[in-house]
Amino acid sequence: MDKKKLKKARNKIDQLDNSIFNLIKKRTHVVNYMIGLKQFKNQIIDQKRIDVILKNIKKKSLIHGIDPKITSRIWKAMIWGYISYQRKNFRKK
C-alpha cells in the first residue's frame, strides 16, 4: 500500500465531501422554502415525484457507469431524510 497516494486520494475525498456539504446546505434552503409553500402535512410526500427521481437517477447512473445501487441508496436516504426534516419543521398556517 502506497501511503502517500492513499493520503492524496483521501484529501480528494475530503474536498468532494466539502462540495457535497455545500450542495446539501443549498438544498436545505430550497426545502425550507418549499415547506412554506405546502398547506397540509400530507403534501410532504409525493410518491410519483420520488419514483420519477429514482428512475432518472438509475438511468443517469447506467449512462455514466456508476452502480445504480449506490446512487439509489444515496438518493433514497436523502429523500427520506428531507421528508423527515419537513415533517419535523412543518407548521400549519
Which labels suit this protein?
Chorismate Mutase Domain, subunit A; mainly alpha
List the helices and strands and how they pair.
Elements: H1 3-37, H2 47-63, H3 68-89
Describe this structure in words.
The chain is mainly alpha-helical. The chain has one domain (3-89): Chorismate Mutase Domain, subunit A, CATH 1.20.59. The chain is 80% helix and 0% strand. It contains three helices and no strands. Helix 2 (47-63) packs antiparallel against helix 3 (68-89). It starts with a helix and ends with a helix. The model has no long low-confidence stretch (mean pLDDT 96).
What is the domain total for the residues? 1
For the biggest sheet, the summary is:
none
Helical amount among residues, as a percent range? Answer: over 70%
Mean pLDDT: 96
So how many helices? 3
Report the CATH architecture.
Up-down Bundle
Shape: flat
CATH class: Mainly Alpha
Note the quaternary state here.
single chain
Gyration radius (Cα, Å) is 17 Å
**Order of helix and strand elements from N to C terminus:** HHH
Taken as a percent bin, the fraction of beta residues is under 5%
Calculate the terminal CA-CA distance, rounded to whole Å.
59 Å
In short:
By secondary structure, the protein is mainly α.
